[in-house]
Amino acid sequence: MRTYAPTTLATFPTKQPYNNNRQQQTTITQNKQTTTTVSNNTDLKQHMKSNLSRFSRFFSSNKASLLGAAARAGLLLGVSAAFLGAPATVSAAPADAAGTVTLQLRKRSPEGEVSIKPTPWKVEETAIIVGDMWDTHWCTHAAARVNELAPAVNTFLNAARAKGIKIVHAPSECMGFYKNFPARHNLLRTKLKMRNRWYGWGQGGGSEAPLPIADSSSGSGVGCPECKDNDRAPYPWRRQHASIEIKNNDYITDGDKGEILGFLSSNNIKNVLFVGVHTNMCLLGRASGMRHIRGFLNAALVRDLTDCMYNNPKGEKSEAPGVDHWAGQELINKHIETWIGPSFLSSDITGRKSFRFREDNRPQEKR
Description:
Layout: H1 20-61, H2 63-84, E1 100-108, E2 114-122, E3 126-131, H3 140-163, E4 166-170, H4 182-188, E5 251-252, H5 259-266, E6 271-277, H6 282-285, H7 290-293, E7 298-307, H8 325-339, E8 343-344, H9 347-350
Parallel strand pairs: 3-4, 3-6, 4-5, 6-7, 7-8
Antiparallel strand pairs: 1-2
């Protein structure tokens, strides 16, 4: 049984006896000051009213510089707290210059050296591609993870829209469902500056190392007997996951068409951010995938808003390299950072805690 130390009562000063003579003396003195006090209060009110009017005019004409100074002061306090060992509370995304978003881009050298560089990108030159976040999948475990991931993707997209970033949905093989959607028409109406040919799934023309996880059976088979041999047409997906909103000013593309690069070029997009599934498959390999786009534009993976297809969908340590699903995902992220492009966390845009699958028990990545 938990025990507590006895509470010590505080000792307060003894109240002094009431002194009637002292009270009378104080009252006489106060009466003598009454006339002066009333006059002074009137002057003070007029003085305060005048000062308030001057401050209001000053603030209106200097609002931008004052708010900027306040933001810089808040940042300085946060940095000072960090150096002094005080816990820092982050309630919003890092302050960005007008019209930009700053991403903490993480890269790796082939020798494993990690670098993180704060990189400002103009929002008008930035787009997000949502890759194959389908409503279902032939692998029930993959479908369950997408069910968990989709709401977090939607939150991220809403934050990005608010900053002015374009959103491109790429639910491959589902264009029939979206033929009458305004977002699909938005893309089709774009006068394409170029229509680049897609040369296939490939792995970067030989410059990319082999993938670090076993995915030859598209993630089925080992450890997942109920999904074995399900990877064949007709496929079950019909649309993008319903938890991900498609706004009328968004865009929809077919991930296997050359239209995507033409669309990005026509809108003067220079930076493309990737979310969705599956990291080592569609998100890399399709025409709308990172491997293809990075040959023409800046490409970055949102590493907490993706999921891989590894030959152990239940998470058991099975095929090479003998790690569970979550460690396999981290290996894919490192592969991309080394050979394809940098990555960052969704918190750089949302200002919220980064996403984490419930079954992923690894230590939380810190920003």
